[in-house]
Amino acid sequence: MVQAQSIAAIVAAHAMGNALLLHSTLFPLLEANSLAMGHMDPSDIIGHPFPLHQLCKFVAFSLVWNLLVALACRMILITKSQTQNDGHQSGVVHVILMIWLYTVLIHLIIILCGIHPTIFPVHTLVSALYLAFNMLLPVLIFMPVNLTQPQYSHHHDSIVKEVPYKVKAVSNYLFGPPLTKEQPKKQHIHEQQKNQNRIQHIHQYAALGTAIGMGACAILRILDHGMQIQRYPIPIIVGATWGRCGGVLLGA
Length: 252
What we know:
The protein is built from 8 helices and no strands. The protein is an all-alpha fold. The two termini are 18 Å apart.
């Protein structure tokens, strides 16, 4: 059984790694752009989105970091499964489908929050992919597999049929109640349930921190100071990254 403390350390390292990438790759670009656009009116600076190629470069670095973390986690789970079965198994195809589905959902949520769908749509899509990857990948790696399988499923069921159930299960896991509130009679089962609830607690705080961070930084768009961090979609990226770090630290 993978202990909650170990998963907390992995999730924290994952979040902090993205924060380091943010400060080492994105912020120097913002500083350089600030010097180049210093002669412009603040409203014009805010009206210009962050260059798409620079945004994609940062997101690509983040995806590489995510894949490295996923590979390390998979190696840990394989080592653990040699002696016991924890039920933490997610197929690559399922993970990819889930991330892309949540990318679309987050994209729609960003639009519902006030971003016009025809204004910088690629910026919005790339930002949604960044959020979905960073929020879901640790969850899908460590989430118990029995929670994402339909109760009456068959091996011949297509992946497409299972995906809606998995989306609902992951949403409940991130934003719903604890996995179980019952007290089993056997002590070892009780310890396993407590461990799973702690892991869920960590992921929920991380997701909540991501949402709060995005909301807090979105206020920057209202201000007319001409700061580079106000350029779309930097408030989304920065808010989600910082907020996730804070949520992970609180949850751990």
